[in-house]
Structure formats: structure tokens, C-alpha cells
Write a structure and sequence with these properties.
The chain is mainly beta. Helices cover 0% and strands 48% of the residues. The protein is built from no helices and 11 strands. Strands 2, 4, 5, 6, 9, 10 and 11 form a 7-stranded mixed beta sheet that branches. The relative contact order is 0.33.
Length: 124
Amino acid sequence: QVQLVESGGGLVQAGGSLRLSCAVPGLSWADHIVGWFRQAPGKEREGVSAITTTDGEITYGYSAKGRFTISKDNALNTIYLQMNDLEPDDTAVYYCAAGWGLVATLMKYEYEYWGQGIQVTVSS
């Protein structure tokens, strides 16, 4: 069974930065997409960013563009989400997800495996 291990969340002041990590040790790394989604209280889960493991194609959700950067380490089966200039509206539980695919997408149904989620709180 594929497990996703998220880390790096926490509390930060507005304008600060956090880096989230998602390790997927049991995943056959090639030909997959790995992404970050987030869900704030009372809101739908939304896509933040995704990357393909094979060629590193990247996509960002509207809220992430210009502030967040996704990257991967193939040797460690790990992806990262560097989040800069954080705002209180970025407060949410962030989920890492993985699925088979060759195109970076933020469509939730493309993702088969999901992590437990990690809290990110941005104070004003």
C-alpha cells in the first residue's frame, strides 16, 4: 500500500515562509503525478500545485501562482512545496496526493493515494 508522509506544516506569521515535504517511499516513482491540495474550514478542497515524476511538468492553482514553488527529488521519492509570502487565507489543511499520470493536473479524481494532511496556519 502506498503511503504519503507529509511534513513541514505549522504556524507562521503573514509574510513568512514554510516548506512542505511529501515522501512517497512505496510508489513506483516513474509515470506518476504528485500534488498538493488544501482545504480550509467550510470550503472545498482545492488544488495548489502538482508535478509529474517523469519529466517534471508543473501546474499551479490560482492561489499559488507567484508565491509557491513545487519541486521533486527523484532519489528520495519526495516532493516539496516552498510557500513564500504566506497570507491568512492560506490557512488550511494541506494534503499530498499521488496518482498515475503523465500530465500535471489538479483534478482530484486523477489522484488515487492521499496523505493524512498537515495543518498550515498563517496569523495576521
